[in-house]
Amino acid sequence: MAADTASSGDIQAQQRSPPERQDPPPNKLHYLRPSYWDERFQGEQHYEWFKNYSHFRHLVLKHIKPTDRVLEVGAGSSRLSEDMYRDGIRHITCTDLSTVAVERMRERFVDLPGMVAAEADMLNLPFDDESFDVVIEKGAMDVLFVDCDDQWSPEPEVAKRVRGMLAEAHRVLNPTGVFITIAFGQPHFRRPFFEAEGLTWSMKYETFGDNFHYFFYTLYKGTKDAGESFSLESMAVPLSLGMEHENMDSEDYLLQSGLSDDDDDDDEERACQS
Ligand SMILES: C[S@@+](CC[C@H](N)C(=O)[O-])C[C@H]1O[C@@H](n2cnc3c(N)ncnc32)[C@H](O)[C@@H]1O
């Protein structure tokens, strides 16, 4: 975005000190443990997975109105919700599974009326049906795929987790609400999950980023035609991942790759550094 068109929220996002970069854990399975995130957030004040708000702000403002009731899940130490707030989106419930992350949010939200922090498992949300207009997440769903060995045929445990998260986002959205997911996961792999039976939204996406494109998915409830559900079995022809990861954060790459044992982790680290 050109500097002369940036909003005050955008400028504040860019002027903050740069996010901290953490070493990835020794094993990707750690990303699935709440204890890993609690320990991490003890030391990490601010970190943005993938990209910060300034890179996809134009897409957020296209899909979220100032009056919308917004739920962010898996927010961690990101400033996404505060950046949206500074852009006039004033009713935001910002959640994470990590107690430490939520304590930090509460401290930061003290002077931001309308911003609420709450501990919440995105697989079992403590909110009423149809209580939000927008659910948004960045990088949290990708964590659920971290032990997926084969993107073409996700293990039942992985599929169960992802379906559980989608069912919960769908449940808490109003009948025309939108689920926004900002992710590495490619459309070909995500569509069978997004458009599975029981979910009434259809998948649309835009991309952002420089060398590597990140995906900004929008799933509007009630937009799927009858009989258009997908299944995991419908995934047929492998696509090239086509990633250029020389500028990618090593943690982003770890989440994206879907490889799970430690030797593979070492290979990925080398690939990131080369
Ligand atoms: C990759 S980080 C993304 C953080 C942040 N959204 C960002 O963009 O920087 C994943 C986040 O998901 C949270 N998380 C993991 N499992 C979760 C669950 N079941 N429910 C809610 N949050 C979860 C972690 O605590 C962590 O904050």
From TrEMBL:
Ranges of residues in domain Methyltransferase type: 71-180
Region of interest (Disordered), ranges: 1-29, 252-274
Compositionally biased spans, kind Acidic residues: 260-274
UniProt xrefs under InterPro entries: Lys/N-term_MeTrsfase_sf (IPR051419), Methyltransf_11 (IPR013216), SAM-dependent_MTases_sf (IPR029063)
Reactions that this protein is recorded to catalyse: N(6),N(6)-dimethyl-L-lysyl-[protein] + S-adenosyl-L-methionine = N(6),N(6),N(6)-trimethyl-L-lysyl-[protein] + S-adenosyl-L-homocysteine + H(+)
Keyword Transcription belongs to the record: no
Sequence similarity: Belongs to the methyltransferase superfamily.
Protein name stated in the entry: EEF1A lysine methyltransferase 4
Gene: LOC112282650
